[in-house]
Fold:
Amino acid sequence: MSIDKMKKEELELLSYKEITSMILEEKGAMNTLKLFEKIVSLLGLPKSTVDKKISEYYTSLSTDKNFLLLEDGKWDLRKRHTSDKVLKAQDQEDEEDEEEQEEEEKIEMSVDEEDFDSQISDEDDFDDGDDDLKDLVVLDEEELDLEQ
Structure:
């Protein structure tokens, strides 16, 4: 059955992701705004819903492995695409994640260094531990045998 012919009551029982799958199955690849506007229209929701919830909708599509964001900015079902496109998209996501992580580490390191530098001052006494070793005595094996 076509999604356009489904009753509103039936559609209300489905999640946005399920409705999105059905739309993409019937209509083909679409951009985020058009997809969400179609869902809002099918469910009879107010137009203000688009502005209020589109970011949540985009996030849900991004985190669901059933959907694939194509190079032209349109969403499609992952099962329709060959693995090389999927791998390229995944590699791109992995590279972006690595870059973000490296940036976060650089920021953390610079913050840690600043904190460390602010904690140390020239006036701080530095204990190198020599005082702990002044009572240390070195014994030969013969002397050890004598003590036992």
